[in-house]
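Pilot study result, target chain (167 residues):
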Amino acid sequence: MKIYGITGWKNAGKTGLMERLVTEITGRGLTVSTVKHAHHSFDVDQPGRDSYRHRAAGAGEVLLVSGTRIALMQELRGAPEPPLADLLARLSPVDLVLIEGYKQCRHPKIEAWRTSAGNPLIAPGDPTIRAIATDTPADVASQVDCPVLNLNDTSTIADFILRELDL
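Predicted structure:
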């Protein structure tokens, strides 16, 4: 399995780019899975549902299964967040895993960056960032030593990632 990340600050366009890339790359016949890092607590379950009640009662893992989907919920209960490599090992084999977030991890990434978000670029101090995808390529090109791509040109960004990974 090959991995590639999309990183950037909040409101930089990461999730929209991830969504478009999954559509573009799967449309080319490749299989794709995703990993999304959240910096806050979240819950994919709903209070009152059976699976929620199982977790609330103390279950460490709850596997929810239907004819259309499987969801494994694991409670850390104070344990540290697992490393990305451990999480990737749990995924079924695919051609590509796209990773949203995980700024500090050492896999190759594209930085999503929007002028309107008002955040500094991450790329100048991070050699794992291989390109910038931005809404203002002309403003960014002089600030970095890597390719600058148009944030809205999903096909070109997909080409770049797939070429980098020999896919």
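One observation from the pilot: The first strand starts at residue 2 and ends at 7. A full batch analysis is planned for the follow-on phase.
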